[in-house]
Amino acid sequence: MSTLPLSDDRRAKRNVWVLVAAQAILGAQMPMIFTTAGLAGQTLAPNPCWATLPITMAVLGSMLSATPLSSFMQRRGRRAGFILGSASGAFGAVIAALGLLNGSFTLFVVGALFTGVYMSAQGFFRFAATDTASDAYKPKAISYVMAGGLLSAIIGPQLVKVTAESMLIPFLGTYFGVIVLNLVGMWLFVFLDIPKPPVAVQGAPMEGRSRSELLRDPIIVVAIICATVAYALMNLVMTSTPLAVVGCGYQTSHAADIVSAHVLAMYAPSFFTGHLIARFGVQKIIAAGLLILAGSGAVALSGVELQQFFIALILLGIGWNFAFIGGTTMLAQAHSSAERGRIQGVNDAIVFGGVTVASLSSGQLMNCSGSDVETGWQLVNLAMLPFLVLAGGALIWLALRPRAA
Q1: Model confidence over 172-220: pLDDT tens digits?
Q2: Which of 318, 359, 375, 50 shows the shortest CA–CA distance to 233?
Q3: What b/e string do you get for 240-257 counting C-beta neighbours within 10 Å, with b at 16 or more?
Q4: How confident is the model over 114-119, as a mean pLDDT?
Q5: Which range has the top average pLDDT, 21-35, 86-100, 144-158, 336-350?
Q6: Which of 91, 244, 282, 361 is the most exposed place for a label (fewest CB within 10 A)?
């Protein structure tokens, strides 16, 4: 079987540094958008139930573009795919800014859809980190790239504080900032050194397993379930957080600080998550992540004081980190380089399909299912339970399943 030419981990480490920088700079737009899109949507939407629709559309754009983008990168390489993602992020921010200028909820939502293409591209940073890495370095490479989100967690919310009220139209300055981040950050990928996959010869037998065969692999199935549940539940709660914080009488700056703490908690453990996976095994780290997510929900249900928002969202970030990096590592270890274009796009399409449903449900639960803000916030957090049971059950099933000889 032919594979991508791999060097030693010196090349992988250089690529990791490029991807860390991209995660930090380009990734700053995601906390900016997640902090402001729901609040802006609430002012533009004809019905408050649809306040989080812009975030839903961003996630939907990510889901719809995941498989085509993965196939595009399989043909044209990671660099071309990541530059395309950044250009789409800038284009989406331009349309969203026009929506704010014209008071058009429709334009704002369309802009969010193009933002989703960037969101999908960012999701592939973690896979790109493994392309030139040895098996021993892969979990660490994933963790280090995810750790780049630490800077994005600081940069993004601070930019929100500076830009949210910088113009007459609220949040317009924030979207101008997103445009600049994309146009500047895309130049980082010039330094990426990942060989293009070998071109398939027409008529030659397919290397590796088909998509249907890959999706019958129990390890891949459980990896996808756990990653989907972790990301969807994180998005469900984070999407509603700014609405809950402001709805409970606090300021937009408080919401930005809470989102900042949350994103820091999402990425700070990445410095050691790979080492923990190497020492204790990927399944135990995923299980720990699911338990921490459950703890986040318990804290959120205990009250709506600022410290409870902070603690719940910090736990939400840590739980997501363990479960999602664990799921990503489990998937990366279960397929060959020849199979990556088939399964990575499918994985992210499924993950972001779950996140799409979660983000849309978040606004419905928050604004339209309870009699007041506190009740809506409780319903959002109670909704986590059945999905945590699903992911936990899948892990237990995999652990008890007889190993192949």
Answers
A1: 999 999 999 999 999 999 999 888 766 655 555 667 788 788 888 899 9
A2: 359
A3: bbbbbbbbbebebebbbb
A4: 93
A5: 86-100
A6: 91
